[in-house]
């Protein structure tokens, strides 16, 4: 159970770092494409590793980490590509990021619906934030903006929302014991 608490703290810290990185991307939206790709690559590699650890944790409800095996591998692969093949593939990577965000949003929608089934009262917050994240992912995928500045800002906004969503999900659904009709950690 102690390992799960540590994992929950790491996951929460990582979610907070997504929020901070999103703010940086919004503030510095004109950064060079290769710097942007390398930062995102490192972030996705770390994100993938954290997700894989989450998947193999001993969370009783298995809501927060239920899709983390696939998302961990996908995150790591995209991160690797972004770090080593920067500006040559930026357009392809932006489309890939958009798809990744859409897939993650769809999985979070399923998490919200599963949380509703078992009685988590704040399931609708997860659903709402997943829908917002999904819309941003679709916009990135369709790439209606030709300027990279707008895309970096859109990715920054999504990182902020996704960080808040991840933080909310892990804080509200990761539990280890059942006490008096209430899950606790």
From TrEMBL:
Membrane spanning residue stretches: 6-27, 39-57, 63-85, 92-111, 123-142, 149-169
InterPro entries: Acid_resist_chaperone_HdeD, DUF308_memb
One GO CC term, this protein: plasma membrane
UniProt entry tagged with the keyword Hydrolase: no
Top-level taxon of origin: Bacteria
UniProt protein name: Uncharacterized conserved protein
Leader sequence residues: none
Any matching Pfam family: DUF308
Keywords from the named record: Membrane, Transmembrane, Transmembrane helix
Keyword Transmembrane helix carried by entry: yes
